[in-house]
Design goal:
By secondary structure, the chain is of the alpha+beta class. The protein is about 15% helix and about 20% strand. Strands 1-2-4-3 form a four-stranded mixed β-sheet.
Length: about 110
């Protein structure tokens, strides 16, 4: 990858099931063939976590054997077999993501 492209991208290790140490929002998340190895309850938490850290209309790419759950589709819309776009209208009764609560620390701040 050329230097100009590398300077636009940040690569870091991340434990998906722990708190994410990011304060900004992603334009794209590539998470291919990872989520299928988690239990359904963990997957549901990850879908909310992804949405929490993504800009409106940003892209989420999953593996061919992965699909968002029906409840996660409240925060995303499908635009292909493995591509989802974070919904622009995530706000639900204030500033909270659908499927999340202020008590568990998940709220979208633009």
């Amino acid at each position: 990858v050329c230097l100009a492209a590398r300077q636009l991208v940040s690569f870091k290790k991340l434990n998906l099931v722990e708190d994410w140490p990011f304060s900004g929002f992603f334009d794209v998340i590539l998470c291919r063939n990872v989520v299928i190895y988690f239990e359904n309850t963990t997957q549901e938490k990850l879908w909310v976590q992804f949405a929490k850290h993504m800009k409106p209309n940003s892209n989420l790419y999953l593996g061919h054997s992965e699909r968002l759950s029906p409840s996660a589709l409240k925060n995303f819309r499908s635009v292909g077999d493995t591509r989802y776009v974070r919904a622009h209208n995530l706000l639900n009764s204030g500033r909270e993501l659908l499927g999340a609560s202020r008590e568990n620390g998940v709220a979208y701040e633009p």
